[in-house]
Specification:
metal ion binding, eight-stranded mixed beta sheet, 699 residues, 2 domains, 2,3-Dihydroxybiphenyl 1,2-Dioxygenase, domain 1, Rossmann fold, alpha/beta
């Protein structure tokens, strides 16, 4: 019947369940020739046992040496498999279950539980549809796969399935939202029985229970699947040995007559886990036909099936590729009959309906390398500081000497950096024309003077200022990456009254220009302030009457107070020479707003896809929660125009995989920004170049 059919998923478990698991298993054994071969278990169990043949007593009694050898081989096989299972790269991929109204469930999960609809597809010729939802991309998060079979509007959840767990920062607030949306709350917020963690229970439209657990920010909000088992110790032993899971914790609650065990592939606060529950005296449960299975990634489905068989599980689908798509899977049952599908890790990534999944491992590698590099830098600097402090305590005179040495080192380093930047940020190109040499300076990082300003007639006419919102900057700490000559950085500080704004640029000459502009604007601002004060005093002296005088005085006091509260421009704005992508400078502070305007192309051309991901991931870490990234990416056509400014850019241009049109997807699905908006509908500048969109990404 349709109600008991699992529909295929392109991400992993692309196969059908039979009406009953036992029937399916029997049909597989009888029809699949490979199920009659047991190469992996030949040394573990006498092969004749699998075919129902009686073992000759003569063999067992008369060939004691063979028995000993067999036992040794069995022990060796078990030990090696157990070791391999522990080292296998495994992760819980998704949980699959059936619902009666797909759109209704999607609406509930997105509006009440804050999930994202990752993808959805309808297969009318096979009369089913499915949808994937979760809190992040499938290649790095545990997600939900919902299956809807045409014409089936309800299922039996049974008594064996328990609940799903979701970590939230405020359980009470989430419960109120769910109530407002018409959701069903089955347990009001309060401490868990026998503990202090605040929890609540709710039900989705199909009756599936969700436990809300109050926790801090976590990379894996969809954090639990709870299943009931008849023998907890047996289940723990199986999941440890056959599945390679760790027993994270075990808790007995004799007062309420149940025991739980948390099993998983890492700490509970960072990974999805399996919660096994044993109720005293209950050994069997009705599994119903609603809940289906969990999918787990593995590097080798063949060895996985071997381990499952060896450690007491039942393989219901022998390992191998699925017809037509070559995704390798194996399916099995645990001692209680709960189903799990193991999917080949590489095949899983290939099967995702994601245009940039081919490079997912590259992204993850770049993110990890960046983080490790920053961590190592921070650790080294802390160690050096501790050593120096210890030396200073022993000999105070060392402090003065150390400071002098450090000043000298910094001066030498700064001098070297300036010389180096002078060589690397500008290049002379020589061409022969009528036997005369012409020298043209090119800027491989887009660091020519007034990169912003040359496109528009006047600085105040920059159209981008018109679409920026005051709330993004006023009273906020801001960072402008690739500030060039600093003109726009200063204009933002003046117009929106930032608490602080730091502009960084790869070229020390541009940073010098920026400070020149800052001093110029500061002088102009001081002149304007003094002029305003004189004008106000003149007006005040000419006004007759104490009432008017008092009024003028109050206006002056109010305006002076307002002006001083906005801060002096020289105190608010600063600049620094820095290669943001390659810098190993420790993260000193976090920002409320980060600007990255007309910069991505130059970083992309000079450091390739890895450099781009490093840029995005560092921005993410530098932002406060709730902070924003204002991004103006250059279009792909402009890459082509500038690809030959250096050998490096020419080489990287040929290998770039991430086009600007995919940045949105990378930032939302891979880096982790919450949402994005295009703020430049129809915006254009006075010259070509500012017709490109500007996006705001919210952390």
């Amino acid at each position: 019947m349709a109600s008991s059919t699992i529909r295929p998923s392109s991400a992993s478990s692309l196969f059908r369940l039979c009406n009953t698991t036992n029937t399916c298993a029997a049909s597989l054994v009888s029809l699949n020739p490979s199920s009659r071969r047991f190469p992996y278990l030949a040394s573990a169990v006498p092969q004749s046992h699998f075919f129902g043949l009686r073992t000759s007593s003569k063999i067992w009694r008369g060939e004691s040496r063979s028995i000993t050898a067999g036992n040794m081989a069995q022990s060796s096989t078990a030990a090696s498999l157990l070791e391999w299972v522990k080292k296998d790269k495994r992760r819980m991929l998704h949980v699959v279950y059936r619902v009666g109204d797909l759109d209704r469930t999607i609406k509930f999960y997105t509006e009440c539980l804050g999930m994202k609809l990752l993808r959805k597809r309808d297969i009318p010729e096979e009369r089913y549809a499915n949808a994937f939802l979760g809190y992040g991309p499938e290649d790095s998060h545990f997600v939900i796969e919902l299956t809807y079979n045409y014409g089936v509007d309800s299922y039996d959840i049974g008594t064996g399935f328990g609940h799903f767990g979701i970590a939230v920062e405020d359980v009470a607030k989430t419960v109120e939202l769910i109530k407002a949306k018409g959701g069903k709350v089955t347990r009001e917020p309060g401490p868990v029985k026998g503990g202090s963690t605040v929890i609540a229970f709710i039900e989705d439209p199909d009756g599936y229970k969700f436990e809300l657990l109050e926790r801090g920010p976590t990379p894996e909000p969809l954090c639990q699947v709870m299943l009931r088992v008849g023998d907890l110790d047996r289940s723990i032993n199986f999941y440890e040995k056959a599945f390679g899971m760790e027993l994270l914790r075990k808790r007995d609650n004799p007062e309420y007559k149940y025991t739980i065990a948390m099993m998983g592939y890492g700490p509970e606060d960072k990974n999805a886990v399996l919660e096994l529950t044993y109720n005293y005296g209950v050994t069997e449960y009705d599994k119903g036909n609603a809940y289906a299975q969990i999918a787990i990634g593995t590097d080798d489905v063949y060895k996985t099936a071997e381990a499952v068989k060896l450690f007491g599980g039942k393989v219901t689908r022998e390992p191998g590729p699925l017809p037509g798509i070559s995704t390798k899977i194996t399916a099995c049952l645990d001692p209680d009959g709960w189903k799990t599908v193991f999917v080949d890790n590489i095949d899983f990534l290939k099967e995702l309906d994601d245009p940039i999944t081919v490079a997912t491992l590259k992204i993850e590698s770049a993110l990890k390398m960046t983080e490790e590099k920053e961590n190592k830098t921070g650790i080294m600097e802390r160690k050096q500081k501790r050593k120096q402090n210890d030396r200073n305590k022993k000999n105070p005179e060392n402090q003065n000497n150390h400071n002098q040495d450090q000043d000298q080192k910094n001066a030498v380093k700064e001098d070297k950096e300036k010389k180096s930047e002078g060589k690397t940020t500008k290049q002379e190109v020589t061409s022969e024309d009528n036997n005369k040499k012409k020298h043209k300076i090119v800027f491989p990082f887009g660091n020519y003077r007034n990169y912003y300003g040359y496109r528009i007639n006047e600085v105040d006419g920059d159209p981008r200022l018109k679409v920026f919102e005051r709330d993004w900057f006023q009273g906020k700490d801001c960072l402008d990456i690739g500030c060039n000559s600093g003109i726009l950085t200063i204009q933002i500080a003046r117009k929106f009254h930032c608490k602080s704004i730091l502009g960084i640029d790869i070229d020390s000459d541009r940073v010098s220009d920026a400070y020149w502009h800052l001093r110029k604007f500061a002088r102009t601002e001081n002149v304007e302030k003094n002029s305003t004060k004189v004008t106000r005093l003149d007006v005040k002296n000419k006004v007759n009457g104490a009432k008017h005088s008092a009024s003028a005085s109050s206006v002056e006091t109010k305006e002076d107070s307002s002006s001083s509260s906005k801060g002096d421009l020289l105190d608010v704005v600063s600049f620094r020479q820095e290669n943001f992508v390659q810098s190993q400078r420790p993260l000193e502070k976090q920002y409320d707003t980060i600007l990255c305007l007309s910069v991505t192309k130059w970083i992309h051309l000079n450091w390739g896809d890895d450099g781009l991901i490093t840029l995005f991931s560092k921005i993410w870490r530098l932002l406060h929660p709730g902070g924003i990234l204002v991004l103006e990416p250059q279009p792909w056509q402009s890459y082509e125009k500038n690809r030959r400014v250096s050998e490096t850019t020419a080489m990287n241009y040929r290998t770039i995989m991430f086009r600007p049109e995919s940045f949105r997807e990378i930032l939302l699905d891979k880096i982790g920004f919450r949402r994005a908006e295009d703020i430049t509908d129809g915006l254009s500048g006075s010259k070509a170049g500012f017709d490109r969109p500007i996006f705001v990404y919210h952390k």
